[in-house]
Design brief:
alpha+beta, four-stranded antiparallel sheet, 8 helices
Length: about 270
C-alpha cells in the first residue's frame, strides 16, 4: 500500500488505556477494504505499519493495549489531502474527563480548535465522563497546553485564598496531566510542590521532576518554589495596585526558562 487513503480508514480506538484525566495517544484505525487494524504510528511511511486481524484486535482490547471507541471517528480534515484523500499530517487522539474541565473553569469540551472540528466520542470500557476526539498532532498538543494554562490560572487564584491543600494538589495533578510544553510543565511542578506536604516534595522531585529537569539542583528547585509561593501569597483577591505589582512579579517568574534555573536567594 503506497499511501494511506482516508476513505478506506476509520478511527476505532486509541493506543493504550487512559489512566489519567486527560492526555494524548496514537489512533487505532481499521481498514475498511479488508477489516485489518493498526496503531497509526506514522502517515509518512505506511509500509512501516503493522496490521492485525479482528481476532488480534479483540485480544489487544481485552489486554488493554488498545481502547475501543463506542463509535468510529472520521479523520480530521486538516490531516487529509483535498486532492486525493491521502493522509498528509499525523492525527492524534486526545481524551479528557469532565472533572478536569470543571477544575480548569471550562464548561464543556470544545467543538472545534484552531479551525479543526472535534467530535467527542465515549470510550467502550470507560464511563461517559471521559471522552476522546481526534485532531492533528499539533492542535492536540496546543489544546492540552491551553487546558494546562487554565489550570495554572485557577491555582494562582486559589492559592492566596488559603484553599485547602488537597484541592490545590488536585489542580496541580490535572495540570501535570495536561501540560505539554517544557515551560508549562516546570510551572506545574513548582505549584505541585507548593500544594504538597513538605515531606513529599523531595520524593516527587527525586522520582519525577528530576527526570524531566536533570540540570536543576535540589536547592535551586527549593528556591524557585519559595519565590513563587511568596509572590502568590501577596496577590490580593481583588484588583489593586499591589495586586498589579504582584502579578507583574509572577509573570517574571513564569516566563523564566526552566533550565538553567535562576538562583533565588532566601528572603
Amino acid at each position: 500500500m503506497s499511501a494511506l487513503i482516508s476513505s478506506d480508514l476509520e478511527i476505532v480506538g486509541l493506543n493504550g488505556v487512559p489512566s489519567v484525566e486527560c492526555g494524548r495517544s496514537l489512533p487505532v484505525v481499521r481498514r475498511k477494504s479488508d477489516g485489518m487494524y493498526s496503531v497509526l504510528e506514522t502517515v509518512a511511511d505506511p509500509a512501516a505499519l503493522s496490521w492485525h486481524d479482528e481476532e488480534d484486535a479483540a485480544a489487544f482490547a481485552e489486554s488493554k493495549r488498545w481502547t475501543k471507541l463506542r463509535e468510529p471517528l472520521p479523520f480530521p480534515a486538516s490531516c487529509v489531502s483535498g486532492e486525493d484523500g491521502r493522509l498528509i499530517r499525523q492525527p492524534m487522539m486526545i481524551h479528557v474527563a469532565t472533572v478536569l474541565l470543571a477544575a480548569a473553569g471550562l464548561s464543556a469540551r470544545p467543538d472545534s480548535y484552531r479551525e479543526e472540528s472535534l467530535l467527542w466520542n465515549p470510550l467502550e470500557t470507560q464511563h461517559d465522563e471521559i471522552r476522546a476526539a481526534c485532531g492533528s498532532a499539533e492542535s492536540v498538543e496546543a489544546l492540552l497546553d491551553e487546558w494546562g494554562a487554565c489550570l495554572k490560572e485557577r491555582f494562582d487564584e486559589a492559592y492566596p485564598l488559603k484553599t485547602e491543600r488537597a484541592s490545590l494538589k488536585r489542580i496541580t495533578d490535572y495540570m501535570l496531566c495536561a501540560a505539554r510544553s517544557r515551560a508549562l510543565r516546570w510551572q506545574a511542578y513548582l505549584r505541585h510542590a507548593l500544594a504538597q506536604q513538605p515531606e513529599g516534595v523531595e520524593q516527587t522531585f527525586k522520582f519525577f521532576t528530576k527526570n524531566e529537569f536533570p540540570e536543576v539542583p535540589w536547592n535551586e528547585f527549593l528556591g524557585a518554589i519559595k519565590a513563587l509561593g511568596e509572590v502568590l501569597a501577596r496577590m490580593p483577591a481583588a484588583p489593586s495596585s499591589s495586586a498589579t505589582t504582584a502579578r507583574a512579579k509572577l509573570r517574571g517568574i513564569t516566563t523564566l526558562p526552566p533550565i538553567p534555573v535562576q538562583r533565588l536567594e532566601a528572603a
